[in-house]
Amino acid sequence: ARGNAQFQMDLADEQLDATTQGMLGLTVACARCHDHKFDPIPQKDYYALAGIFLSTDTRYGTFDAQGNNHPAELIELPAGSKLPLGPKMRPDQRSLLAVANARAKTLAAEAQETINAARTARAKGEELPANIQQQVVRARAAQGAAKNLTSLTERFGPDGDPTAKNLVAMGATDRNRAMNARVLDRGELDKPGAAVPRGFVELISRGDEPAIVRGSSGRLELARWIANANNPLTARVWANRVWLHLFGRGLVPTPDNFGMSGQKPTHPELLDHLATRLIADGWSTKKLIREIVLSRAYAMASAFDPKDAEIDPDCNYLWRMTPKRLEAEAIRDSMLAAADILVRKPKLGSPITFAEGAARGAAQERIIGSTNGDGDNNRSIYLPIVRDKVPESLDVFDFAESAYVMGQRDVTNVPTQALFLMNSKEIARICDMFAMRVISAGPKEIDRVNAAFTIALGRKPTASEVAFCRDFLDDFKKATVKDGRSAPPVTERGAAPRGRRDPKAKANADAKTSRERAREALDATLNPKPAQPMTLTAEQLAYSALCQAIFLSGEFRTVD
């Protein structure tokens, strides 16, 4: 019971922290164990908000299994919803799932006997030997796997078509019984104090807050209070976040903390003006962005002035547009766009569809592999992100930490970024496609160099850059011929030459069981690999290397 109570309290704490930092710019979660050390937020205000989240049933969709003692259902969407049911399950996938499911059910049945025996022994006060404890652990894992596989199989028809059982989603609903949280001394469960009625933060309350309906969690009233035009923080926090994304730094440099321990706004009147405009325009972020980007401040050049720098080295007063590096998603998408292979529409469903529930070991690696973006030309915003397993193409360029509220990303310039761009097979694939586009620009070398610069950098190359590119292409072609990689066309990027088959590989493939082939098919789906590398001539390789050099330039990754 204590374990479940602690889990629910920690879950409510994370939700409270994300809500108050993300929308109000307040670190209310600091008042969990004591009154806030810097801001006038008493501990009772924390538990007034905590009561709202403790009265909320969070549906995240997991099964009871070893390592997961707090299962939850998903929310069923209306059957008539005009929503896609997801991707179709292929026959080879279904074959593997059927084999795995049958085996899991057998193990689960055997596991139940072990669990029952363990329960009987514990009821008698007997201590379980270490080997029996291990058997119980494995038994619970087997039961969890069986539940996962059964649920997954039932969501698809005999022909692999997704059924209405796929109309589920993560979300939150009210619990059957609302509750008021008790103030915990030092945040300890075994030191409860008086109960606090569900409510809001008094520091920013005006007395006109919506009253929480008796018996409800209070989530709706909380949402209305946060989004109220009279709330002094919400519009300012949001306007500041928009400014931060456009300028690289917020008017309040600490976007998640508008409190005493945060930094003061550099232009408080401007922040108030933007917040007022945001509310007047119906909370339209698009209209706010339009107003900011049409301003003189946004149109400032990035030219450096030593005199201004001496007076205002941090550019707090916006005497120029400070150059900023593109975010990870924009870098990846820009490379795909340069190669003319960026897919702007989201694909139907996700590879995670075929791997629900807790995953460990090889299964986890297959699932994680499906999210790394290799061979996936979709926009980065559509890539599934598994917590703590961010795709390398995003992680290396300071992708936001997915486990916490993070209003502003770190911006680093480290060797691993250049090494990734030089050695990644995925980057090599994109550069090959970019080279094909550049070569198609015309038969003349100058036309191709102009195309490469125009597409990637938005400008024509200078005379010295043209000369450098010509020397680079000539030297690369000569080096390729010297290394024995010249025409006739050769297969690059590690692929085996076409037209050759290894007889041993064929014999091994024929010897595989149907189960092994089905498992490999599912692995290929969950962990897609790039298409077979193209066959490139020495000239094509040279242009691919030139395109890669442009991607490596600071100009390509910087908004100047």
Extended strand count: 10
Main beta-sheet strand count, sense and barrel state: 2 strands, antiparallel
Give the topology string: H per helix, E per strand.
HHEEHHEEEEHHHHHHEHHHHHHHEHHEHE
* Biggest sheet strand line-up: 1-4
Classify the helix fraction into a percent range: 40-55%
Shape: globular
β content, as a range? Answer: under 5%
N/C terminus separation = 57 Å
Which class best fits the helix and strand makeup?
mainly alpha
Rg from alpha-carbon coordinates: 29 Å
Taking pLDDT < 50 over at least 5 consecutive residues as the criterion, the unreliable ranges are: 486-501
So how many helices? Answer: 20
> On the 0-100 scale, what is the average pLDDT?
85
Helix and strand topology:
Blueprint: H1 2-24, H2 43-54, E1 56-59, E2 75-76, H3 91-123, H4 130-154, E3 168-169, E4 171-174, E5 182-184, E6 192-195, H5 219-226, H6 234-247, H7 268-280, H8 285-293, H9 296-299, H10 306-311, E7 324-325, H11 328-338, H12 361-369, H13 392-395, H14 415-423, H15 425-439, H16 445-457, H17 463-482, E8 490-491, H18 503-511, H19 514-526, E9 535-536, H20 538-552, E10 558-559
Antiparallel strand pairs: 1-4, 2-3, 5-6, 7-10, 8-9
Helix pairs in contact: 1-2, 3-4, 3-19, 6-7, 6-8, 15-16, 15-20, 17-20
What features would you highlight for this structure?
560 residues; mainly alpha; 10 strands; 5% strand
Structural write-up:
It is a single chain. By secondary structure, this protein is mainly alpha-helical. The chain has helices at residues 2-24, 43-54, 91-123, 130-154, 219-226, 234-247, 268-280, 285-293, 296-299, 306-311, 328-338, 361-369, 392-395, 415-423, 425-439, 445-457, 463-482, 503-511, 514-526, 538-552, and strands at residues 56-59, 75-76, 168-169, 171-174, 182-184, 192-195, 324-325, 490-491, 535-536, 558-559. The strands form five sheets. Strands 1-4 form a two-stranded antiparallel ribbon. A hairpin with a 7-residue loop joins strand 5 (182-184) and strand 6. Helix 3 (91-123) packs across helix 19 (514-526). 26% of the residues are buried. Mean pLDDT is 85; it is low at 486-501.
